Amino acid sequence: MSASHTAPRDAAGANRLDALRKHSVVVADTGDLESIRAYRPTDATTNPTLILAASGGEQAQALIAAALDEAGRGAGSESQQLDDAMTRLSVKFGQAILELIPGRVSTEVDARLSFDRDASIERGRRIISLYEEAGIERERILIKLAATWEGIEAARVLEREGIHCNMTLMFCLGQAIACAQAGATLISPFVGRIYDWYRQHDKVEDYAPEQDPGVLSVQTIYTYLKKFGHDTEIMGASFRKSAQVLELAGCDLLTISPALLEELQADTGEVTRRLDPEAARRAEISAQELDENTFRWQLNEDAMATEKLAEGIRRFAADARKLEAQLAQQQR
Q1: The pLDDT of residue 254 is above 80
Q2: Closest CA relative to residue 43, chosen from 63, 24, 67, 58
């Protein structure tokens, strides 16, 4: 893929990526700085997997060296300095991204803290303090937390302190409702991973876009939150194909990989708004109030959400360990 691709434009002067921007905020789902520079997203989101994928580049290596150097000047054992270097590296990637975009960057709390409320709170505060030390205001940062009960409760505390949160690894309505009740700034319901699970479960090759289980899940979440006036922003995430993206045009934000950004930019044609807050407010659905027991039970009853949440945490944790090992090797 060439990040410098020049797209054809239709008679109106817009390709599908530009047309999509009229309905939703476009977010780059990557740690690759060249892709962000090429596709001009408003916001960007990162995680250890994306940073790991981008870590071989020359600019990324400079960021790694700087993070290790700063962490090495601090007190603590070698393992504590390594942990600090991991946090500093995620912030340094965020700083580099913020130089290229007008909006916000999401920086992830280590997935290994997904079931530790207090440690997640402390890590969120630490991330914000590093950004503020670098002269970046907290309004441009979203602390990314897994949508476990503990992660949601950590977000409740952080949001009260003016630290905005992006709740990730979201696979069901119950997670979305609990995050909205906690006052989370933004949620990232996943499309592609739901699609993957149901394709395997239903033993089908594909779904029509309007019948795609991942798309339907985000539509359900969007309708509920808009119907009941929650301020939490909804960002569709984890797309497998551009048809899924286009079927969610009108969602508050859409975080899209560079490959799909290129595909949309190279395509021409209209983009029809599919999600609309006024239509959502007319939906005939009932409000829910979730406490911890109800949240855990609803999650337990949804095999897909249970499996994909656990798998997602394991995968992010595994990539964090790989990135940590890379830093440890360079630390010596």
Answers
A1: yes
A2: 24
